Amino acid sequence: MYAIVRAGAKQQKVAVGDVIEIDPTGAIVGDTLTLPVVLVVDGEKVTATKLDKASVTAEVVGASKGPKIVIQKYKNKTGYKKRQGHRQKYTQVKVTDISL
C-alpha cells in the first residue's frame, strides 16, 4: 500500500516506513504531522476520490539540507560578476501510518 501526499508545493509517493524530506514545517523532533492525501493505491484498488477522511501520519525525524547550488551572473565587457550560493533546508519525516 502506498499513497501520494502533498507536502508543501510538491507531491511525493510514500509507503509506511519511508523517510522523506519535505519543506520546513517548524516542528521539533518527535512531533507528529498529518499530510494531506492526493491518491491511495492498495494492491489493485486505486482511490482518488472522497479522500477527506484519508490521512498519512508522519513523525519528525530531524532537519537536513539539500545540495549546494552555485549561482553565477556575468556581464561581458562591464566588469560585473556575481557569485552566490544556496542550500535548501528540509524537514525529514518518517511515515508511520496510512489510513483510509
UniProtKB/TrEMBL annotation:
GO cellular component, one term: ribosome
Annotated InterPro entries: bL21-like, bL21-like_sf, Ribosomal_bL21, Ribosomal_bL21_CS
Origin superkingdom: Bacteria
SUPFAM superfamilies listed in its UniProt record: L21p-like (SSF141091)
Keywords: Ribonucleoprotein, Ribosomal protein, RNA-binding, rRNA-binding
Function: This protein binds to 23S rRNA in the presence of protein L20.
Family per similarity comment: Belongs to the bacterial ribosomal protein bL21 family.
Assembly and binders: Part of the 50S ribosomal subunit. Contacts protein L20.
UniProt-recorded name of the protein: Large ribosomal subunit protein bL21
Organism this protein belongs to: Nocardioides imazamoxiresistens
